[in-house]
Amino acid sequence: MYGNLLKHQKPNTKRGRSGMSTSSIREPRQKRSIEKKKRIVDAGFKLFCEKGYYNTNTAEIAKEAGVSTGIVYNYFNDKKDIFIAAVKFYSEGMTSQLYRSLMGLKEPFDMLETLDQIINIFTTSHTLSKEAHEEMMAMSHTDNDVREYFCNFELTTAEKIVEIMFQHGIKPENAHEKVHIAMGMIENFSHEVVYHKHEYMNYDVMKKEIIRIVAEMMNS
């Protein structure tokens, strides 16, 4: 899950938001260093969920991770870098489960059953990490770096889903656009079920309607 998170990046000489040169940021190579960076991300994720981004500081993250504040700055420029790493941890965890489910599909391909599984994965993910998701969505509306990450993440996810669809012989016209629309509908449904919970809504009916609409769209 941390594979993409801990990839080596080319050093540069820009100044980080902490005032340090980003060329001093260390990308871990040894197992111990990789585990230490992972602890920092885990600690940040936990505190961001519990306290929110603006109510959490780097010193608290360091204490939670069991390292010094100086060690944190060996791996991250500032608190926002830790937050974005935590966002990657959360989002890549959800999509890895989604991809495993899609790659494990057997022929003949059942579109309705597959869509039902996808909706369940999205809804469960939102339920398990409700606080994290709320904080990330709030930041995506106010911070350009977080917004850019989510835009790229959505694009990459849509491309991967289209690739898997094509492997199963499902090749609708304007596939990328249709997948993006479907993802938006499923995301909104997850928000409705987990956060809004309107008493007058029958969510079983809503789910069936989403499955029907998306299936018809993908078959056209």
From TrEMBL:
<dbReference type="Pfam" id="PF00440">
    <property type="entry name" value="TetR_N"/>
</dbReference>
<dbReference type="InterPro" id="IPR001647">
    <property type="entry name" value="HTH_TetR"/>
</dbReference>
<feature type="DNA-binding region" description="H-T-H motif">
    <location>
        <begin position="57"/>
        <end position="76"/>
    </location>
</feature>
<dbReference type="InterPro" id="IPR009057">
    <property type="entry name" value="Homeodomain-like_sf"/>
</dbReference>
<feature type="compositionally biased region" description="Basic residues">
    <location>
        <begin position="7"/>
        <end position="17"/>
    </location>
</feature>
<feature type="region of interest" description="Disordered">
    <location>
        <begin position="1"/>
        <end position="33"/>
    </location>
</feature>
<protein>
    <submittedName>
        <fullName>Fatty acid metabolism regulator protein</fullName>
    </submittedName>
</protein>
<keyword id="KW-0238">DNA-binding</keyword>
<feature type="domain" description="HTH tetR-type">
    <location>
        <begin position="34"/>
        <end position="94"/>
    </location>
</feature>
<dbReference type="GO" id="GO:0003677">
    <property type="term" value="F:DNA binding"/>
</dbReference>
<dbReference type="InterPro" id="IPR050624">
    <property type="entry name" value="HTH-type_Tx_Regulator"/>
</dbReference>
